[in-house]
Sequence to fold (300 residues):
Amino acid sequence: MNPSQVEAYLHEHIPLSAAMGITVVESSPERTVLEAPLGPNLNHRATAFGGSISTLAILTGWVHVHFRLRSEGHAVHTVIHRSTVDYTAPITSTFRATCERVSDAPWARLCRGLDRHNKGRVHVDVQIESGTAHVSHFRGAYVALQEADG
Amino acid sequence: MNPSQVEAYLHEHIPLSAAMGITVVESSPERTVLEAPLGPNLNHRATAFGGSISTLAILTGWVHVHFRLRSEGHAVHTVIHRSTVDYTAPITSTFRATCERVSDAPWARLCRGLDRHNKGRVHVDVQIESGTAHVSHFRGAYVALQEADG
Fold:
């Protein structure tokens, strides 16, 4: 799926992604980048709401893991298992979350888990930036499960 | 502020809380309880989206800390600094986040920080349940800062 197809998928199946105005800037096994405008994601201080930052990052990691597995032929569903976010600076404009390609060893472990036990687990890091400033860091653990009919 | 006033405040100042259909069930220094319906918070698996669970918990902890400080006479603003969520079971109906009263020692530390340095920090735990099942756990660190004109 190309970025606009991924975006349409998210908006259709995860209504909060549409309410937040999330766009998919890049989606490939190399890198996934999602973006959100400030307007629908404001808090009481006129900066980005922590819940929106956390949500954008969770989705970015999910898109990266899920669609890379699918592109490699794994018929899986993927769920978030644990998330941690550090909010390091206030955000006053559009913000962007980037998940770089998971490195080979943990990716191979995830795939081995799927092949042997129909279940694998992987950690991903997502950096959140606004303009040129680094504003938050996310680390998530995702679990992929072989589809029953996969 | 009573629960319906807190709810109106959230919906006005944090649009995502309105998009999620969040209601404030209880808001007092003893306990804060926020609830969200499944509809606007669905994911691609027809269960509650992790971003929504995380967001409901962040708001619940924030309401608890911020409005208890305000009710005790501290003119502060309060921000999330770190959040961790464990997603332990899928959610298939309305879900509810509960933050119990922070115990005396950490609360006194928070207030001492505000009095001495215009800044304090506190950790809170939030339990997320759906029906009678425990489905997620959240731990958040919040920072309260004395208002410049407070």
Notes: The interface with chain B takes residues 9, 13-16, 19-20, 39-45, 49-52, 54-56, 58-59, 62, 77, 79-87, 90 of chain A (CB under 8 Å). The mean pLDDT of chain A is 96.
